[in-house]
Amino acid sequence: MRLPDWIKTPYRTGLHDTKHLLRRHGLSTVCEDARCPNRGECFSKPTATFLILGPCCTRNCGFCSVTSATPVAVNIHEPDQVAAAAAELNLKYVVITSVTRDDLPDGGADQFAQTIRAIRGRLPEARIEVLTPDFNGDLNSLKVVLDAGPDVFNHNIETVQRLYPAVRPQAGYQQSLSLLKSAKDMSPAIAVKSGFMLGLGETMDEVVQLLEDLRENGCDFLTIGQYLRPTKKNLPVVKYILPKAFDELKDAALSMGFSYVASGPLVRSSMNAEEMYNKL
Ligand code: SF4
Predict the structure, then answer these.
(1) Are 51 and 30 contacting, i.e. CB atoms less than 8 angstroms apart?
(2) Which domain holds residue 265?
(3) Ligand 1 surroundings by CB, under 6 angstroms
(4) Which of 2, 80, 82, 240 is the most exposed, fewest CB within 10 Å of its CB?
């Protein structure tokens, strides 16, 4: 389907400097690996979402262009590399995410914790958001991450329950909801965030049910964006949702008690994350 006019991103300058900096520190970003349409805007700010635990994921979600292959060994220098890059970018708000590492006993939780602590050591004032995998619902892994003291715990629910077999075949809808709830129960002061995409074939009734499920499971703030097909290997776009529908969903979510909602075709889970947090 032809890309509608409302999904066009302007070319930005300055992104190459950020790319060079990231490479110099030996780092990857989900911005690049997931082909985010906003990376031009974010890199030129500059900001970026650091992708830890290597470029290869043990899963194969239908919407994602991250490489699904045998993962690499954990890089023990990575926490310091991320902290050094964040300091050089002078970030006030740092987002850390990762591929899913079902091959690791703790799912990579300790690497998240060490990265949070390394950033705190270099940027004591910075806010830190972690966008984590589901750790297969392992609450010990979740506790390891939360004990390191991030400001925001983010885990994307991604889509409605009915579409999980195609969109997130190795994940569980209820498992992801209970991970969010456990994060809130374990750390009541932490801001809990989630996000999902539209345009994969969901109905509006299913989306309303998803919003209710997220609220019931401790989610404070939310991102809602349009699914864009990153490669021909990924799921096709079923529908381009009108910007007006994103606004209506935002109003519906706010009336359900979410503290803040970013909803729009180009909204992504860690886009303008700092601004969102400051508005909370
Ligand atoms: S688990 Fe995350 S990184 Fe892995 S394929 Fe799914 S969305 Fe992509």
Answers:
(1) yes
(2) 5-278
(3) 57, 59-61, 64, 66, 68, 99-100, 133
(4) 2
